[in-house]
Amino acid sequence: MMMYLKAKERGETGCGGDPGHRTRRPALLRLPDSAGIVSMTDGTPPAVMMTLDGETRALVQLAARVAGGTELDVRAGLREVQRAGTPPEWVEELILQSYLFCGFPRTLNAAREWRRTQEGQGAGLQRVVQQAGELEAYTVSGEATCARVYGRFYEKLRRNIVDLHPELDRWMIVEGYGKVLSRPGLDLGRRELCIVAACVGSGQDRQLHSHLHGSRNVGVPDSVIAESLASLEGVVEAPNLARAVALWEKVRGQGD
Fold first, then answer.
1. Mean per-residue pLDDT for 153-166?
2. For the chain, what are the domain ranges?
3. What pLDDT band is residue 2 in, cutting at 50, 70 and 90?
4. Which CATH architecture has domain 7-122+185-254?
């Protein structure tokens, strides 16, 4: 799903999610000295330096491979998340949200490869299947999540989307932010990092601009965003990564 914000309004396009009611709370990122734990999902960016854990690093790399790689790349990414011990629930949610950013064909291919890796693994993974008829709930959660990601640009975003087409605005909120990205199973910070990686992998710089800002807005520290981008070296095409790093330097320099 792609969204639109005029260039001068900082961050043209994007989606985000909210942890909502979790059936499983994702592990929190640890401080470098392991003396404490700080959540990526707090509304205010943490004031401490944090590092990217291995489970999240592998998930971010998989997001880029699903969006821009071959099926062989996706298989390599799935092997890596298993080696890293990335929770299967996170992988499920990443694959599900991918259709918003790279379409059903790539998402279906990734889901098929993921299912193959899970054959013979037993019934330990509890899939979240949402019920039909939850339009109002999706609207409420979608608006809340979208507002978190866009911050003070939220109202401008909504007006600009309506100008493009009122149905795009409704689908953005209900389908993107509500039904998909507000699902339990993966926190908003990690969802945003995966969206950033997907945008880099597919060369979608406009969407990347918004989600770099969105990652900061939902509390992901600059250090973790930078590490996430660095982890994509050798995973995505070099020109895509070079543009992403340059764009990140611009976003970081703009502050809040």
1. 96
2. 7-122+185-254
3. very low
4. Up-down Bundle (1.20)
